[in-house]
Amino acid sequence: MRALVIEDGEEIPLLGGDVTEGLVRVGDTVRRPPGERAELVRDVLLHLEKVGFEGAPRYLGVDSAGRQALTYVEGEVAGRPRPSWIADEDRMLSVARLLRGYDDAVEGFGIPVNLPAPIEPPGLPDLDDPPELVGHQDVTPENVVFREGRAYALIDFDLARPVSRAREFVNLMLWWAPLGADADLDPEFRGLDRPRRCRLLADEYGLSTADRGRVLGLCIALNERAWHTMKYRADTLGGGWARMWSEGVGDKIRARQTWLQANADTLRSALFS
Ligand SMILES: Nc1ncnc2c1ncn2[C@@H]1O[C@H](COP(=O)(O)OP(=O)(O)O)[C@@H](O)[C@H]1O
Ligand SMILES: [Mg+2]
Q1: Would you give the DSSP letter of residue 130?
Q2: How many angstroms is it from 48 CA to the middle of ligand 1?
Q3: Rounded to an integer, what distance in angstroms lies between the CA atom of residue 87 and that of residue 192?
Q4: Residue 222 confidence (pLDDT) above 50
Q5: Which of 164, 175, 155 shows the shortest CA–CA distance to 214?
Q6: How is domain 89-271 classified at the architecture level of CATH?
Q7: Could you tell me the residue ranges of all domains in the chain?
Q8: What are the pLDDT digits (tens) for 163-216?
Q9: Which atom of ligand 1 is nearest to the CA of 57?
Q10: pLDDT, tens digit, for every residue of 226-259?
Q11: Alpha carbon nearest to ligand 1 atom 13, residue
């Protein structure tokens, strides 16, 4: 690993994410208190640098306070209220291209063995969804840096984990179609033609025919798991997880499940239209 002196300097808190407490910007770096899989994030970011993938921060090392130091990626990140461009189709498609680029770049990293177990409720049923790569798994508007109107980099790899491409695509649809009843979405995302947008995302990502046939079922299964996982994390980890739970994320997931069940057939047909 490179020898590197990580300078100290004025610390500017980075707000807007949901979970990471103590995240700061120092000059052209960010410092992240290590997450539950900090070594995996480090190794993935180093791999991305090695293969020349531009769309992620660079890993710089660990600073004197034990935090991971990464490059600060200049650009626009959508906070709340959402910017007026958040639902633009071209922006959405650029996120699909970025995620596809990431997935292709990370594939050669392989599936690491002996990862610490994810913090999940005991007894969650197995998904029967063999992993193909270490997915990003959190492609929210807050975790994409845009430059010149296009998605330029993914940030926040804390939820990276071995997953299938179908599962990466579910995450992409979830945040960028996006999925859920209009009333439960940010106002800027209401009234969109979601079947059309899912189809466009699938084409831009290059989703296989087999995966088109199974992503809706997978999405429903994952949404069900998400309720249990979020609740478990709120109960056991507290912090941002507990805050999100008390702000009603569980009810949002339940409402999304109802919407998904009512719309899955239409969305699935659109993916094949
Ligand atoms: N490497 C980075 N480059 C640019 N901005 C960043 C970077 N890391 C974090 N940020 C900014 O800080 C916000 C919160 O960081 P994030 O890593 O997403 O934390 P959380 O885990 O709380 O979601 C992001 O939405 C983004 O605006
Ligand atoms: Mg984030």
Answers
A1: -
A2: 18
A3: 8
A4: yes
A5: 164
A6: Alpha-Beta Complex (3.90)
A7: 12-71, 89-271
A8: 999 999 999 999 999 999 999 999 999 999 999 999 999 999 999 999 999 999
A9: 1
A10: 999 999 999 999 998 999 999 999 999 999 999 9
A11: 17
Is residue 69 classed as helix, strand or coil in its secondary structure?
strand
User: Which ligand has the nearest atom to the CA of 142?
Assistant: 1
Tell me how far the alpha carbon of residue 207 lies from the centroid of ligand 1, in angstroms: 28
pLDDT digits (tens, 9 = 90+) for 38-73: 999 999 999 999 999 999 999 999 999 999 999 999
Closest CA relative to residue 34, chosen from 69, 6, 73: 69
Q: 189 and 82 in contact (C-beta within 8 Å)? A: yes
Task: Read off the DSSP letter of residue 182.
Answer: G
Left (φ > 0), alpha (ψ -120 to 50) or beta: where does 32 sit? beta
| CA 152 – CA 175 distance, rounded (Å) | 17
Which positions ≥6 away from 79 have C-beta within 8 Å?
A: 16, 141, 142
